[in-house]
Amino acid sequence: MIYFDNSATTKIAPEALQSYVQTSERFWGNPSSLHRLGGQAFQVLEKAREHIATLLGAKTEEIFITSGGTESNNWAIKGTALEKRVFGNHIITTKIEHPSVLNTVKQLAQLGFEISYLDVNDKGEISLEQLESMLKKETILVSVMAVNNEIGVSQNIEEISRILEHFPWVHFHVDAVQALEQVPDLLALGRIDLLSLSAHKFHGPRGVGILYKKAGRKIQSLLTGGGQEKTERSTTENLPGIVATAKAMRMYLEAPHPMKEIREYLWNFLEQQSQIKIFSPKEGVDHILCFALKGVRGEVLVHAFEEEEIYISTTSACSSKKSDSSSTLAAMNVPDYWATSAVRASFSYLNTMDEAKQFVEVLEKLMKKFEFLK
Q1: Using N-to-C axis directions, what is the helix angle for 239-254 and 36-56, rounded to 10°?
Q2: Which string of b and e fits 3-16 if b means at least 16 CB within 10 Å?
Q3: Which among 134, 317, 318, 367 is annotated as catalytic?
Q4: How many Å apart are CA 374 and CA 365, to the nearest integer?
Q5: 281-336 pLDDT, tens digit each
Q6: Which one of 21, 75, 118, 133 is most buried, counting C-beta atoms within 10 A?
Q7: Are 293 and 370 in contact (CB under 8 A)?
Q8: Tell me: the pLDDT tens digits for 12-31?
Q9: C-alpha distances out from residue 295 to 71, 300, 339, 373, Å
Q10: Cβ-based neighbours of 247, under 8 Å, separated by 6 or more
Q11: Signal sequence span per UniProt (predicted)?
């Protein structure tokens, strides 16, 4: 089996799973309980939080645990909107964000907030000039993903940060779910106020996310109750999942990554095929490669690969079961006949060059098969 769908989810690392099991068995007290078992669990929780903060280059008090990237994005955006609505109601985002951002701002628009959407060029890059022209005194939030989950384009977060230095009242949120390895450098810029991560994208467990909230920044809580997470997100903590997340994060950031070589090998093959169109920019991130085989719908190609025990996806896994074509490719003005044929191969540090070579062999076979059927 070859698994090239790591942007949808990764397999939990054995070491992270072991940490999950051991924590479940040894520290099953509620971290909020006053007794010894609760105290032990709380100490483990805070040690894991400290470890995550150190790996990301953040302060421990800036790390908040959530249920995943979707909750982190919702909390960052809605929390800012609720906190700062007395100062303004204008939010800026892009046309190629994850649905957890686009659907969130759509909901806020129904509540009276003004939403502006940044266009992208044929590479999926936003215009910094357009961003500057949209900013105004009523703007309270700019939300831009670091790496697009469908084609792997990186936005220029450094330049966006520079622009927003002149707008200190504006919260800057970055969806970094597909960009863990960039986070320490991004936070070092000093201008990001909120940043989202999801554990299952880096071989951690599902159901655990992270929201970085810069010290001194205020957002409203979405979950109120018992006062966990420094009273900002109430719910009993998923202690085994949090410990496993810290373990998986360290392993991901320290492991040798073969994705660059794998992507370059596949790119060099794909660009030589006249019936294939590549949508990912050549200078995109190492772990995502989006392309289409002319005249073959994406879901057909996905299932054809599946019959060969190779697993890829049609663009975003969050919308892959719908008949709609990619919102990212639509924003890039890719014709629908190409967009509906788009598939995404995505890699992790567990993949190998041998797998990439097998992928090419199977793709060559499928290209001949579909050409014969036309």
Answers
A1: 30
A2: bbbbbbebebbeeb
A3: 318
A4: 15
A5: 999 999 999 999 999 999 999 999 999 999 999 985 555 455 455 789 999 999 99
A6: 75
A7: yes
A8: 999 999 999 999 999 999 99
A9: 37, 10, 11, 11
A10: 13, 15, 16, 19, 204
A11: none
Q: Which residue has the tokens 């109750």?
A: 225
Judge contact between 134 and 160, C-beta under 8 A.
Answer: no
Q: Which of 181, 135, 151 is nearest to 281 (CA)?
A: 151
Q: What is residue 207's three-state secondary structure?
A: coil
Mean pLDDT for the stretch of residues 82-87: 97
* CATH 3.90.1150.10 location in the chain: 256-372
Domain 256-372 has CATH 3.90.1150.10: yes
Joined together, the tokens standing for residue 79 give 């929390």
Please provide the CATH number assigned to the domain covering 14-253. 3.40.640.10
In the chain, CATH 3.40.640.10 covers 14-253
9, 200 contact by CB (below 8 A): yes
Q: Is the pLDDT assigned to residue 372 strictly greater than 90?
A: no
Contact by Cβ (8 Å): 281, 147: no
Give the pLDDT of residue 327. 87
Q: Which helix (H) or strand (E) holds 310?
A: strand 310-311
